[in-house]
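Structure (tokenized):
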């Protein structure tokens, strides 16, 4: 892993008008009575996701500044934090750790310390340690302490400040149960943690909420609904090292008696309407009574959102609405691995009579606001999204803690989602807003200078100051469309040369990116070793990993992820690249004949039904690499368009194809001639065998009985105008020429 920091000054990562962003307009009245038409939905980041068991993911905090802080994880696994200044309109974004883990379970959580310093916590899914960073200055995300790590076998950090201590709850230990680590020095160090909740199933899931008196209210399940057919939900309150029931009676003391057992907790939901899964817990601001949101599953395709409220003497449970089925977009022909992933629901913890949720409407997951005035007996609803395009989901809404009304009232994931890891999700984080400001003051592009190959493109995204500018429409222009074109920020190289790409706002503010288009550097022989950014590379090989897009000579043409299985295998075979979608690895080569060798294998898992194409021709189909096996396959390929495209795909039960290495060796180089130079000496020497092929490699004519010149052979075979390959063999040497018939 690499601990790498990058900083962006942003107005809004809105970029171009893409399907995952826009969703209509509404008319609102601003201060002073002026009406304006603004988007209901805007974009926080084009690339962001989260799970729902590590929180807070967003917080509003007033100190010397008035700011909202956000955190998320990207598709590639970058750990991100951002801040929005409500007084200046400035939006800052920082990458805390590049490519930490491509898994939405690894999303970070935030704590604003009493002195205004920000602490960010994150851990990998089944990670080794929790990572902790503290901001150098209060209310400032631009500078941070060194990484500090604590505990073991961890997921889902959930921090609170309790008096002079900082408590972090998480799932941890060899039994994957709720644990608690405490810092008594303002988060500088933490103890290694203690078991907090014992018993139940293999993996109890928890949500926490802190009351104004510092007490921590806990909702916990028996286990995972996939494993527990009667998954129940329980409650306790934790204060001053004591566990209490909702009515205030003492259960036990943590210091003297250790972890509370699930069997000692009171049951909130007994699985009477199907197994359950907790989503949120909050407190009634008037009474201080706890309340919960959860999903119940009469079946895996019938998810019901429910509400539980403690009325002072008992827990009352009621249904809010039917929610449809799971939201992951299960690939055809496969079984959904997470059938209890509901669209999600969350309290507005400052006003918990308001609930935001995601449910299916005509097969599409949309966001709604539900409101109750009678503790769940009845509900009214309002659609936040509607008419979302097919293939797009709106899921996992959150409300920033202590949020400022009208700003980021609800934020959710919007995009495509098939799986929680390994590039299986491609979502933006979008939000509802009802406050806007006027003109754009500054436009910033994510790139100011790029180099492209002809036929290759890059997506430019624009950022704005202020962040909540009312009109973020841009006009894109290229200074020379023969060199590079631009459509909605997507720049495509056309031919060698230089061009300027300009993005201009409606009020004339603009930003420019310089584009240089140049030809690639061609190679003829290479060994590509696919692995992680830090794993060793085979001797003489070129290392390829998830940060190797197509460059001057080679690279991936899509997003992949990586694995390294350790030192028990050699450097070439121990690690690999993988993905679920079809992705092309391109190598720019000189024209000619090539011998290619591909290795595919994984020490720890099998990978089935993989397909490999080279330059569009299927070479391997539905092959399986058994666990611990290494497949080695070689192919001869004739290249006529100066590139080798290796396309990898899969259609099996395992979600990924893999590749460990590719070796390319040129066996003969093509020489270009045309009919006007047919009398060249080299081309007209008698040869033992000769063939004429089209550019796909299909042989049209062949001669192998007696020596003959190419000129004589061509005169005997009529060819239409076009491009052909002529292969000559003589004295055990083979030469291939590109022949242009004019």
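Design, position by position:
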């Amino acid at each position: 892993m690499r601990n790498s920091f990058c900083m962006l000054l942003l107005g809004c990562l809105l970029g171009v008008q893409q399907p995952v962003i826009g969703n209509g307009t509404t008319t609102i009245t601003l201060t002073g009575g002026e009406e304006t038409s603004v988007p209901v939905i805007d974009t926080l980041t084009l690339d962001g996701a989260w799970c729902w068991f590590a929180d807070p993911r967003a917080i509003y905090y007033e100190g010397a500044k008035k700011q909202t802080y956000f955190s998320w994880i990207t598709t590639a696994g970058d750990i991100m934090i951002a801040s929005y200044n409500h007084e200046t309109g400035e939006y800052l974004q920082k990458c805390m750790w590049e490519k930490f883990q491509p898994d939405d379970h690894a999303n970070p959580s935030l704590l604003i310390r009493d002195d205004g310093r920000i602490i960010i916590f994150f851990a990998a899914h089944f990670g080794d340690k929790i990572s902790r960073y503290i901001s150098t200055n209060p209310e400032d995300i631009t500078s941070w302490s060194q990484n500090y790590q604590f505990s073991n076998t961890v997921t889902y950090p959930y921090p609170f400040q309790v008096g002079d201590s900082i408590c972090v709850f998480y799932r941890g230990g060899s039994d994957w149960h709720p644990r608690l680590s405490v810092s008594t020095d303002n988060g500088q160090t933490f103890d290694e943690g203690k078991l907090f909740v014992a018993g139940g199933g293999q993996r109890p899931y928890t949500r926490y909420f802190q009351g104004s008196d510092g007490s921590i209210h806990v909702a916990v399940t028996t286990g995972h609904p996939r494993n527990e057919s009667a998954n129940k939900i329980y409650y306790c309150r934790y204060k001053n090292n004591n566990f209490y029931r909702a009515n205030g009676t003492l259960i036990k003391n943590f210091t003297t008696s250790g972890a509370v057992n699930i069997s000692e907790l009171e049951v909130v939901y007994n699985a009477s309407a199907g197994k359950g899964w907790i989503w949120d817990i909050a407190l009634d601001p008037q009474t201080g009574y706890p309340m919960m949101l959860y999903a119940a599953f009469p079946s895996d395709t019938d998810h019901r959102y429910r509400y539980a409220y403690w009325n002072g003497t008992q827990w009352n449970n009621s249904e809010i609405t039917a929610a449809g089925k799971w939201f992951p977009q299960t690939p055809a022909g496969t079984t959904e691995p997470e059938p209890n992933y509901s669209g999600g629901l969350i309290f507005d913890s400052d006003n918990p009579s308001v609930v935001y949720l995601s449910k299916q409407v005509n097969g599409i997951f949309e966001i709604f606001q539900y409101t109750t005035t009678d503790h769940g007996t009845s509900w009214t609803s309002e659609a936040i999204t509607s008419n979302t395009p097919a293939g797009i989901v709106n899921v996992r809404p959150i409300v920033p803690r202590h949020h400022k009304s009208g700003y980021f009232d609800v934020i959710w994931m919007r995009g495509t989602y098939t799986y929680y890891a390994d590039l299986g999700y491609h979502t933006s984080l979008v939000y509802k807003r009802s406050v806007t400001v006027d003109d754009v003051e500054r436009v910033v592009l994510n790139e100011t200078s790029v180099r492209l190959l002809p036929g290759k493109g890059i997506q430019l995204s624009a950022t704005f100051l202020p962040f909540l500018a009312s009109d973020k429409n841009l006009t894109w222009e290229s200074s020379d469309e023969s060199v590079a074109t631009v459509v909605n920020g997507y720049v495509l190289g056309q031919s060698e040369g230089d061009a300027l790409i300009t993005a201009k706002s409606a009020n004339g503010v603009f930003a420019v990116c310089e584009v240089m288009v140049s030809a690639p550097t061609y190679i003829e022989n290479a060994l590509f070793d696919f692995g992680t950014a830090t794993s060793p590379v085979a001797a003489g090989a070129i290392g390829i990993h998830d940060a190797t897009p197509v460059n001057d000579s080679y690279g991936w043409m899509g997003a992949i992820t990586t694995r390294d299985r350790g030192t028990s295998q050699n450097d070439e075979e121990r690690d690999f690249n993988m993905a679920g979608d079809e992705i092309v690895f391109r190598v720019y080569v000189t024209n000619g004949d090539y011998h290619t060798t591909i290795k595919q294998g994984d020490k720890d898992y099998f990978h089935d039904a993989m397909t490999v194409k080279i330059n569009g021709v299927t070479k391997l189909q539905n092959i399986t690499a058994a666990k611990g096996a290494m497949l080695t396959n070689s192919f001869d390929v004739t290249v006529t368009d100066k590139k080798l495209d290796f396309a990898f795909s899969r259609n099996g039960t395992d979600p990924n194809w893999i590749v460990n290495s590719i070796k390319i060796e040129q066996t003969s180089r093509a020489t270009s001639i045309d009919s006007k130079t047919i009398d060249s000496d080299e081309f007209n020497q008698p040869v033992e065998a000769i063939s004429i092929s089209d550019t796909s490699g299909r042989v049209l004519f062949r001669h192998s009985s007696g020596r003959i010149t190419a000129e004589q052979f061509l005169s005997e075979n009529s060819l239409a105008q076009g491009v052909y390959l002529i292969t000559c063999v003589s004295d055990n040497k083979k030469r291939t020429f590109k022949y242009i018939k004019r």
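Reviewer-requested clarification: Residues 525-667 form a domain with the Jelly Rolls fold (CATH 2.60.120.430). The chain has two helices and 61 strands.
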